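Hello,

Our lab assistant flagged a job as stuck in the queue for most of the afternoon. It eventually completed. Since we weren't sure the result was trustworthy after the delay, we are filing this so someone can double-check. Below is the sequence as submitted and the structure that was eventually returned. Let us know if re-running is recommended.
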Amino acid sequence: MRAAFAATCLSLLSTTAFAQAAPPPAAAATMADPAAPKGKLSDAATPVAYRLDFTILPDQPRFSGHDEIDINVKAATKSLYLHGRNLNVSKAVALVGGKTIAATWTQVDKTGVVRLDFATPLPGGAATLVFDYDGAFGDDASGLYHIKVGDIWYSWTQFESIDARAAYPGFDEPGFKTPFTISITTIPGYKAASNAPEAGVTKAGALEKHQFAATRPLPTYLVALITGPFLNQTGAVPPTPERASPLPLGVFATQAQAGKLDYVMAETPRIVSLLEKYFGEPFPFPKLDQIASPVMPGAMENAGADTYGDGIILLDNGAPTGQRQEFGMVVAHELSHQWFGDLVSPAWWDDIWLNESFANWMGYRIGNEWRPELNIGVGALDEGFRAMNTDALEVGRPIHQPITENSQIDSAFDNITYGKGGHVIAMIAAYLGDEKFKAGVRLHLKRHAYGNATSEQFFQSLADGAGDPRVLTAMKSFVDQQGVPVVNIARQGGKLVATQSRYAFLGSHPAPEQWTIPFCLRVDAAKSCTLLDKPVTTLSATGGGVIMPNVGGTGYYRFNLEAADWQKLIGTFATLSPGEALAADDSLWAAFRAGNAPARWLVTAARTLAANPDSDAAVDGGSRLAGLKLRGLIGPESDAAYRGLMDSIYAPRLAAIGFNPAAGAHLGDAPDKQKLRQNLVGFVVGEGHDAAVSATLEAAAEKYLAGDKQALDQAYLGVGLGVVVTKGGLPAAKKLVEIGLASEDPTLRQSALGAAAGSGRTDVAQYLLGLNDKRLRPFDKIGLIFGLATSEGTADFTGEWILANYDTLLAGGNGIFITSRLPQALAFQCGADRADRINSLLGPKVRAAGAGVLTFERTIESIRHCGDLRAAKSAEIAAAIAAAG
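-- returned structure --
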């Protein structure tokens, strides 16, 4: 699974419902059972196979199902625990040796643990559990959900992590892998798809029944179902050296997306073939469907039936570079899961990090190989460096964490798993070399194909395949403990001395740790690599030139230098490779936040970086300065100087490469240059308030809104509409909301709503937070809340609104993620007073719920650290900005 993280939300959204349709009273009843398992089920019964027969009429409020599960019972028992959440079960029996044993279904836990009590003891051995039931559709991407697009209803599923239990009774754990034989009865003429190829369609009274072949062994969370009058384009992935036969390929999308299926059909085959080449194995399932959903804020690797948000895979001609980068990275991420996650699945949720960390690395790696001109690979390093701010907190977790309760599962899907985990994989792969690392991966897949594996088994395969057991020590030191190492480099007697410690923010005192760090350093052009496995290491590197202590940027660590060496390195920021530029700027900012670097260096670094040719590196310093402004570390008294500084840094670079907002005006430029221009326009307008560029965009946006779609390229749609709201205030915001809600074009809808949410005006915020429009989907509402909470001018207002409306916002939300994600909308608050207020009002509720506690505690700690930094450095920051003007 890959969540789509908006930059301003910093991975705050997830593929789970914000609110779901409330179940009927009978289905909602839960009886407490102190003996019920809170995490793993016991081995009292093991599933062998499922037969699921659904009736899905997407325009109805409920669906129904008939579920048969073949099981092996370990020993005679009067009761069994399994899973089902808010299902109205009308029949529950066990079939044993031709006899029927009645059972009573009782949900005993809000996360969906169920106890089956049998009328007579269920004997040991083979048995079949049979259920008839119905349930409520969700209204966002969780469980079995339906969405009205225009005047037409469609349904999809999203089951990771533990939402399959909201659609059918079962043993909803990743360690149980069985075949599934699925059928869907629905309206004649409707499309239906699942994990396996369709085997036939038959009449079922006034309806039609779609029968699917039995799947390969799967865990419950990888099952997929879609139903409705979908557009469906079909083709095939041509044979490859690893696969002798064509692979059937299909794309499904709602009718509102007509004309947008060609790109994903054309580009998916190349990504599949690159993955087959890497793994040395054919695609592990008999077909592949790429499925689009309007409310999926990310993507999901259902075996043979991947699901994505509309905007990820349904691209227009002339789609911006960033959108094509997202396509390549996310599609490669999800398809890599078909091997690493679906073919070989985690034994339990504490091993899900390996699926996601590996797929995150693989998404960037294969995405970069798919279209090198898009410069996708550097995004992996950027994501890793930004994860370090989470990893550096005292409250946290290692990548590989024990999970003992269902309520803890959500914490495994965060930027530690994706950003840190992917970066650590990249570091180990770079240390071993591509071929040795690949050998370990291939060995792992061969050893555990169509089964489950633990982290330890992966480590062993990696060591065996690479022939280098030292990799285990290095990798485990990063995977099994929390924190970010910082390596201090000092000159001593003509040598360089490296001292490692745990990085800490100002005012923070985390427990000490030690790592085995694959460390590569360059002095001028001379590169040397070693393993830092002691607190202090004398390096063989010599010379008085420029020191770059993280060659290529692939190392998951920060570094600090002596003042003179920092000055030399900052002077080279414009010419560093993208990964090294990002690594160096991150370490410089980390030194500032630890109290080891002055604020004036940050301004110098931002100005120097602006000349870097890479689109990400060029604006990295500016994005970090903007973060200070948003959090209030740059106060109103410095506003004019700050705006002038940002305009002086980025406007000349924009003028040098030219800017025309018209559609397609710059299509002849290299993709990364197009993205650089888009980034520069965002900074010049959003942070610099450049009057001339703003006026140009406003004129183009007004023409666009008047019907001239060629006046404004979609790359500038969000920022252009933002200028319209800035100038037009509340009336303009209302107009854009209407345009957005009336549209099923994902780019226009998100741009229009996002522009309104980013206005910085409290009157607009009040209007948006009170908006009650039936076209406003839960995912739209989440986007508005986070947009308002992360925008200068409305962050405090929205924070207070969240505190006042927290209970209402959570009401009816049964998805595992929302409890933990909502408090993160408060992450841009700053100061001990704010932290105390949020903790006093929300802390007891979060802790009582027992879900999302870690994420909440991280948010509180981050708000406190912001206050510490403001107290220590705000005057220095103001002086640096004033001096730069």
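-- support follow-up --
The delay was a queue issue, not a problem with the job. The result is valid. The chain is about 40% helix and 20% strand. Residues 827 and 859 are 5 Å apart (CA to CA).
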